[in-house]
Here is the input.
Amino acid sequence: MNPIFERGPSLRLRLFIVTLLSLGLMVVDRYTDSSTQLRSYLTTAVSPLIYIASLPQVVLTGASEQFMSHQRLLAENEQLRERLLRQSGTLQRLEFLQQENNKLRELLGSAPVTEGQRLVAEVMAVYSHPFSHQIVLNRGSNDGVTEFQPLIDDLGVLGQVVSVGPTSSRALLITDTTHAMSLRIERTGVSVIAEGLGQWDRIRLVHLPHSIDIQQGDRLVTSGLDGRFPEGYPVARVSRIQRDLSQPFLQVQAEPFAQLDRIRYVLLLWPQQDASNEGGSD
Amino acid sequence: MQQTKGIGVIYLSLVLALVLMVMPMPAMVKLFRPDWALLVLLYWVLALPFRANIGTAFVIGFLVDVLVGTVLGVNALAYSVVAFVMAANHQKIRNFSVLQQSLLIGLLLAFYHLMIFWLSHFLTGVYFLPDYLWPVLTGTLVWPWLFWLLRRVRRQFKVR
Here is the structure.
């Protein structure tokens, strides 16, 4: 006879206790504010596992860079230098435009657009669970990362930081089902709300009336109205519009510019001026 | 009462399975990734139900919640329920052939995914896609090999 029931409570009682515990956890995590802090501690606790899991990838990339030929490295270097030159040229013009813009804004009596500090972070892990699109970054509160900080890459907005540990932090991507943000249609200036669907390549615009002026291919940029994302960053392109008059709203889907399933490096933004002195390198 | 032996091997295999679950991979491959931690856990529940059962399942499920980023407690509950089914019927299931076991594991995995979806839908309002069920198929296919491997490990280290 197996000694399974010899010690401790019976299986049913154990299941009952465990069910109560889990339900308690779910309620705490979903409906209270303390969970963000709790999550941060837990993220820190399990970060060794994530480090181990990302080792093969790190080693493989390292090896492939190691074996890259000298010739190809030189070519890539030259390419990058050329791109840098071109971009710094555009940047000079941009700075001039920014100054001009700020002056005009002053004339109009509205607040000038401030540009905060930036920090590059590397992605340690990407979660592909369909019900949670999150990434873990290798920067934490030691580098001045705070909660709700926006995250971009060279193509567009990626998401926002949701929990911070000392050396790592966790960010929610714009495609997560629990994520929503305020956008603006660049062509018309109409504000819309975008929700994640749990799929890598699309987000959904909600509560759009049938009469709204929207076309396939319209660019969507952040509106800054949600108070989290600074204004004017590109987010997605309208990919599908379904006009079904039996539905109360227009069904619109958009495709994010950023390649969310293959992010390696991200840029953390400090939108407000007051937080800019805590940040790390530029 | 049997002497506890090689309990470290159980935990080591579970930790390895957790690492496999969060290992970065291309999105295409990720879609088919079996639920390693659940499969390894189910093996130990089947083989040594008095060493690994609902308590272990809860802890592992909780770790999966933290690692994967689902709402805390969702995986913990689903793991515990699946482990309960396995532990309550371990003597019957042990006598099944590997093929029958695989099919049963497939059923359990489908049940697990249904629970996860149902809880997540209730908590965060996710939408169902048939793609979410690929791990059920891959998990079913992986089970015979995993079973064989873990039985080798158990006998090698004389885990009791």
